[in-house]
């Protein structure tokens, strides 16, 4: 039986929250918005694969990229491993826990024993920190929950070796080293600028039709086709209401990560002594408010089964309006950090 | 979003949002989940509708449990196939009772793992005759054996 003294705290998003907590464990204080922003995480991607009934979207960069970007920019070394089988993966994890090293594992959220039934969906890119073991159970810090949770060995094995999109393949990592004496202000300033530049570039310049502003418009134009994909009204309602979940309650901090990004820009403005970034933080907060209007709208019409073609067109127009606003916003941001 | 607009009184499911504080700064707020508080009844009603739709077809032998769980968890045949480790064609075959009958116990076990149920649950419907009876399936260390606990209140 072993339990690491780990400061668990709730966070908006699993990857940025978990990284912020891991860094704190290694005596580096960095807020979750700072981790998110310096990691260049704000994004938009429209995803349509045969593994999904309806197309989906996400508003952050690829899972794992925040860690990679942060490590590169701040000189933090992460030790990463992948495994072929659960027994070897578990043995490696247990050895790290025995050494007192909190270890992050990538899991399929479906197998988290502690989640309520309405949250049980197969999503392979969830991150939790394993902080102990009691009998056959692991103790995990999942920043979507108020306290340390208990996860059975069987569930953890299944979660780490689930297949399909973003299959974890037993992926785990821990902090190997942090810069001696902490992170200097100059290094942090540079990382913040790099993070902003990367995110703004991805949103407006990346020549890929399903990401950034282009992806947002593609997603908007796809929505009127959803009634044809749906097998019945309930299924359409569920898909439309899932837009709310993606924007608000699937670990975004609200407004599709835009509120958290506003918090980051406010922090960045102070750090860099650039008041224009504080103005930009207010702008992205206002954009987030309008994403929230959309999410409340889809929740309402979904529940009312008010899902006619005119409503689909309304959602399309709302998403396109957000795309227009964000195009202006990120172009302006890109100019500021060039 | 202003802090006062973000507050949702719902202890059962908490989330962390970033909000504008009264002093104009932006920061975290732990609060209740809006959708869960206001719309979870609708979610469970949809699940109930799927159950009603599928149970009749299951009893009549028109579909296999694969169809039921596919609809319940909003999955595609392609996704189920990858997760179970078989071809999409086999999943399509297993959606009929005749095709499902040809699946090996090992494959049924893998389906059960993907759907988060025991192997036994893939072959039976559990319908308590009394309203206050609760039923729960418990795992054992034997991957092919689960224990069904039936009792009053929370089983």
Determine the N-to-C terminus distance of chain A.
52 Å
Measured as a percent range, the helix fraction of chain A is: 40-55%
Which strand order do you get reading across the main beta sheet of chain B?
1-2
**SSE pattern of chain A:** EHHEEHEHEEEEHEHHHHHHH
Q: Based on the structure given, which CATH architecture of the largest domain in chain B is correct?
A: Orthogonal Bundle
Rg value of chain A: 20 Å
Main sheet attributes: strand count, strand direction, barrel closure of chain B: 2 strands, antiparallel
Shape assignment of chain A: globular
**Secondary-structure element order of chain B, as H and E?**
HEEHHHHHHEE
Mean pLDDT of chain B: 93
Which regions of chain B are unreliable across 5 or more consecutive residues at pLDDT < 50? none
Q: State the largest interface.
A: A-B, 52 and 41 residues
Structural class of chain B: alpha+beta
How many domains make up the 3D coordinates of chain A? 2
Number of helices of chain A: 12
Fraction of residues in helix of chain B: 40-55%
Query: What's the helix count of chain B?
Result: 7
Using DSSP, what is the number of strands of chain B? 4
Quaternary state of this entry equals heterodimer
Could you list some keywords that capture this structure?
heterodimer, A: 338 residues, alpha+beta, 2 domains, 7-stranded antiparallel beta sheet, two-stranded antiparallel ribbon, 12 helices, 9 strands, 52% helix, globular, B: 155 residues, 434 Repressor (Amino-terminal Domain), two-stranded antiparallel sheet, 7 helices, 45% helix, elongated
Describe it.
The complex is a heterodimer of chains A (338) and B (155). Chain A contains twelve helices and nine strands. Chain A is α+β, with helices and mostly antiparallel strands. Chain A has two domains: 2-30 and 77-177; 185-337, no CATH class. In chain A, strand 6 and strand 7 form a beta hairpin. The relative contact order of chain A is 0.15. The longest helix of chain B has 27 residues, at 34-60. In chain B, 27% of the residues are buried. In chain B, a hairpin with a 5-residue loop joins strand 1 (14-20) and strand 2 (26-32). Chain B has a two-stranded antiparallel ribbon with strand order 1-2. A two-stranded antiparallel sheet of chain B has the order 3-4. In chain B, helix 2 (34-60) packs antiparallel against helix 3 (65-72) and helix 4 packs across helix 5. Chain B has helices at residues 3-6, 34-60, 65-72, 77-84, 88-94, 97-101, 105-115, and strands spanning 14-20, 26-32, 133-139, 146-152. Chain B has seven helices and four strands; from the N terminus they run αββααααααββ. Helix content of chain B is 45%, strand content 18%. The chains are: A alpha+beta (338), B alpha+beta (155). At the A-B interface, helix 9, helix 10 and helix 11 of A face strand 1, strand 2, helix 2 and helix 4 of B.
